[in-house]
Amino acid sequence: MPLRDHFHPPFSTRYSWDMVHAQLPGMIAMHLNTLLPEGYMAGPGVHIGSLAELDIATSQEPPPEWEPDADGGGAGGTAVAQVVWAPATATLEAEADWRGVDEYQVQVYDVTRSRELVASIEIVSPAHRNTFATKCAGMLANDVAVVILDFVTERESNLYADLLGVVSATDPKLPAPPQGIYAVACRRRRIKRKRKLETWYHPLVIGQPMPTLPLWITERLAVPLELELLYEQTLKALRIK
Question: Do 186 and 119 touch, CB atoms closer than 8 A?
Answer without folding.
Answer: no
